[in-house]
Structures are given as structure tokens and as C-alpha cells.
């Protein structure tokens, strides 16, 4: 059974940091493109960061320079370090996985999803 389990969300003040984790199981992690999506209140799903099977990261322009994605293949885990958080980063964050995709791929194409973890940035 495929599972993606996110953790690490919470409430933080603007300018603060959070680290999200995604634990994967049930598929060959090392061959998949792993991505973090978010859904802000009243908005659609937005890809914010992804990491290819060779370890190359990619970022949406809205988070570039503030967020960093990393993976630990030995632990089947992917992480999203979020720094200098802004109120507009408030969203439900989801981990997603699929082979042969990129950060520009539609969310429809991702076959594996986690349940999400809430991030709230507010003073």
C-alpha cells in the first residue's frame, strides 16, 4: 500500500521557519519525482517545490530563495525547509509523487498524495 505521510506543520509568526517532512512507503522512492503542493484558502493546488530522482531541486518563483527541498533516499523521506515565512504562505501543504513528472506538471498527473499538513503564518 502506497503511503505519503506529512508532518511538521503548525502556526508561526511572519519571518519564522518550519520544516515539513514526508515519509513515503509502498513504492520505489528513488525513481519518483517528489513534490510539495499547497492549497491556500479559496485557491487551487499550487506546486511550490519538487526534487528529481537525481536530487535536483526545483522551485516555484514565489518560494525560491526562501524554501529548500531535500530528500533522504535511505529513509524514503522528503523535506521542505520553509524560511522567512509570509502570511501568504498560509496553506495546506501536500506531498505528492509520481515518475517522469516535473514541477510544471499538472497536479492531475500525480498518482500518490498525502493527507496534508496545515501551515499558518500569522502575527
Task: Describe the protein's architecture and organization.
The chain is 0% helix and 49% strand. With 123 residues, it is mainly beta. Strands 2, 4, 5, 6, 9, 10 and 11 form a 7-stranded mixed β-sheet that branches.
Topology, pairings included?
Blueprint: E1 3-7, E2 10-12, E3 18-25, E4 33-39, E5 45-51, E6 57-59, E7 67-72, E8 77-82, E9 91-98, E10 112-113, E11 117-121
Parallel strand pairs: 2-11
Antiparallel strand pairs: 1-3, 3-8, 4-5, 4-9, 5-6, 7-8, 9-10, 9-11
Percent in strands: over 45%
Distance between the termini: 40 Å
* Mean pLDDT reading: 95
Which parts are unreliable, with pLDDT below 50 for 5 consecutive residues or more? none
Gross morphology = globular
Largest sheet: 7 strands, mixed
Fraction in helix: under 10%
Comma- or semicolon-separated keywords:
single chain; 123 residues; seven-stranded mixed β-sheet
Summarize the structure.
The chain has strands at residues 3-7, 10-12, 18-25, 33-39, 45-51, 57-59, 67-72, 77-82, 91-98, 112-113, 117-121.
Amino acid at each position: 500500500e502506497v503511503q505519503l505521510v506529512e508532518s511538521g506543520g503548525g502556526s508561526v509568526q511572519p519571518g519564522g521557519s518550519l520544516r515539513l517532512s514526508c515519509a513515503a512507503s509502498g513504492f520505489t522512492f528513488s525513481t519518483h519525482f517528489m513534490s510539495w503542493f499547497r492549497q491556500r484558502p479559496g485557491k487551487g493546488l499550487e506546486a511550490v517545490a519538487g526534487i528529481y530522482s537525481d536530487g535536483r531541486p526545483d522551485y516555484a518563483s514565489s518560494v525560491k530563495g526562501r524554501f529548500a527541498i531535500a530528500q533522504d533516499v535511505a529513509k524514503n523521506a522528503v523535506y521542505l525547509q520553509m524560511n522567512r515565512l509570509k502570511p501568504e504562505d498560509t496553506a495546506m501543504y501536500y506531498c505528492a509523487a509520481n515518475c517522469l513528472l516535473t514541477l510544471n506538471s499538472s497536479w492531475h498527473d500525480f498518482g500518490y498524495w498525502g493527507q496534508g499538513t496545515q501551515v499558518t503564518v500569522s502575527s
